[in-house]
Design brief:
The complex is a heterodimer.
Chain A: E1 7-17, E2 23-34, E3 39-43, H1 50-56, E4 65-70, E5 73-74, H2 80-86, E6 87-90, H3 101-111, H4 116-121, H5 124-130, H6 147-159, E7 165-169, H7 177-194, E8 197-202, H8 205-211, E9 214-219, E10 222-228, H9 229-234, H10 239-246, H11 248-256
Chain B: H1 10-29, H2 35-62, H3 65-86, H4 94-118, H5 126-157, H6 159-167, H7 172-197, H8 205-212, H9 217-246
Helix pairs in contact in B: 1-2, 3-4, 3-5, 4-5, 4-9, 5-7, 5-9, 6-7, 7-9, 8-9
The chains are: A alpha/beta, B mainly alpha.
Chain lengths: ~260, ~260
């Protein structure tokens, strides 16, 4: 494998026109990286630019300046569908296509244009087991599963292909505490057993604490603190980080609404 | 039966205009406040149709293709303009896309009918080409408006679905397939309904016109069937082109959904 990080953003700047047409900077020269087998949690309050940052990595958004790299290669040199097949985003609210769980998994292979031999080499049984998708769900209407179950199907669907990295946007925000904790364990297993690079953005510090190797704290479009999870969460160096970490629950409420 | 058509004299026209006066009187009686609109609409109709009549008279007499084609171009221009005014949400490059679609959809179908089926001699015979093109374009406008409107609505409603498909590595074409097929279905419904109801609810205009001007009813019926097929074909091709050219405008060059 490559020695460097699997995914990296270098000095990305994103501007967006605000409500009155004026240009707002959503991300200020931000750099983050995540290696294969590693989980990076980008935490911050709502509106801090977390989702924007995440969407740069599969090119749903393009930065105004800076570079995004996959295994050292600028993603602009890759075909976007091929990139997204390897660096797969799972949205905050699980979206399942109409039909059964099986049909959803098949849709993934269809969108990725997997050949029969590709599909055969994907070990679906293992993926389902890792994501804790019960074989009993396969022929059920995917949209009738619980939200937690749906999120697991979305994970399995994302992995059903040449996926090397997962981008998770607030993966547990729609779930109750217990389900969220179980899902955090699933993320750990996916990183360790399949060597996936996982970048997740969340405002939920306990999720970061439970599964992330490293944490990057994003406030108002800038990373104010980055390092091993325990260090950042227990020993923040900047005042802004201390303020956010001491009262994330206020933010938690706001974002849940 | 097939005697010469009964012409209307100026005096006859003046007599039927008395019916508009009657309408004016009734509107006044009910305080409907419609006198101005009725008056102007009646006047506009008279002037506009008289002008069209003179132009057609002239074009028929000229016997050259250029003025005929010019009229067709003007008709297409008006059609695109009308669709633009009718739909609330216009896709980027709207005029270019709809113009191209109508040109090839309506134009193609009309010429197919006139040259391959009727076998017009000369190919531009304005007596056939202009009214037939008018019917084809007019009916295709409805389909085109529906297609444009529906495509925009589908892209709005299906944002999550389309983004999920893209995120799994789906191509722009694969991700928009459900939106495109739904828009196509919506655009074709009026043509399908019109064909199914043909003859039951009302006698269609072209057939009525032909019968009035002395055509054998069976011939008029065959023409009506033919024109309905041409119209449906034209709606399908025009809509197909609008959708195939249009769905891409909802995506960025790097194949993600545009923010709106």
């Amino acid at each position: 494998m490559t020695a460097g990080p699997l995914l990296a953003a270098q000095d990305v700047i994103v501007r967006r026109s605000g409500e009155r047409g004026q240009l707002q900077t959503v991300l200020h020269a931000t750099s983050v990286a995540v290696a294969a087998g590693e989980i990076l949690a980008v935490v911050g309050p709502s509106g801090s630019g977390k989702s924007t940052l995440l969407r740069l990595f599969n090119r749903l958004l393009e930065p105004d300046s800076g570079r995004v790299l996959l295994a050292g290669q600028d993603i602009r040199t890759l075909d976007p569908p091929a990139l997204r097949s390897q660096v797969t985003l799972v949205a905050q609210k699980p979206y399942l296509f109409e039909g059964s769980v099986r049909a959803n998994l098949a849709a993934s292979a269809r969108f990725r244009k997997l050949t029969a031999s590709d599909a055969e080499s994907t070990d679906m049984q293992e993926i389902l087991a890792l994501c804790q998708v019960s074989p009993a769900w396969l022929d059920k209407d995917a949209r009738k599963l619980s939200v937690g179950q749906q999120q697991r199907v979305c994970l399995a669907r994302a992995l059903a292909g040449p996926c090397q990295a997962l981008l998770l946007d607030e993966p547990t925000s729609a779930l109750d505490r217990q389900t969220a904790e179980q899902l955090a364990l699933t993320f750990r297993r996916l990183a360790e057993r399949r060597g996936l690079a996982i970048m997740l953005v969340t405002h939920d510090l306990s999720l970061a604490e439970r599964c992330a190797d490293r944490v990057a704290l994003l406030l108002e479009g800038a990373i104010v603190e980055e390092g091993p999870t325990r260090e950042v969460l227990s020993n923040p160096t900047s005042a802004a980080a201390r303020a956010f970490l001491s009262s994330p629950s206020a933010v938690d409420e706001e974002e849940a609404s | 039966m097939n005697g010469a058509i009964i012409d209307l004299s100026l005096w006859d026209l003046a007599t039927v205009y008395s019916l508009l006066l009657l309408s004016l009187g009734l509107a006044h009686l009910l305080k409907a406040n419609q006198s101005r609109e009725l008056f102007w609409a009646g006047l506009r109709m008279f002037v506009q149709l008289l002008l069209v009549g003179y132009v057609l008279h002239l074009v028929f007499a000229l016997e050259t293709p250029v003025p005929v084609l010019l009229i067709l171009v003007v008709m297409i221009g008006f059609a695109v303009q009308t669709i633009g005014a009718r739909v609330k949400t216009r896709m980027p490059h709207f005029y270019r896309i709809v113009g191209t679609a109508i040109l090839f959809g309506c134009g193609g179908m009309t010429f197919f009918f006139c040259t391959l089926v009727i076998g017009l001699e000369p190919w531009y015979d304005p007596r056939y080409l202009i009214p037939l093109a008018g019917m084809v374009i007019g009916n295709s406008m409805t389909g085109a408006s529906l297609a444009v409107e529906r495509l925009a609505a589908e892209f709005k409603e299906r944002r999550e679905e389309i983004e999920t498909a893209l995120s799994l590595g789906g191509s722009v074409q694969a991700a928009s397939e459900p939106a495109v097929s739904s828009a196509f279905r919506a655009a074709l419904i009026p043509s399908i309904n019109a064909m199914a109801a043909m003859g039951l609810v009302f006698l269609p205009g072209m057939m009525t016109g032909q019968i009035l001007s002395g055509t054998e009813p069976m011939i008029a019926v065959k023409y009506q069937i033919a024109i309905m097929c041409v119209i449906t074909g034209s709606v399908a091709v025009t809509t197909f082109l609008i959708l195939r050219l249009g769905y891409r405008t909802y995506f960025t060059p790097y194949q993600s959904l545009r923010e709106d």
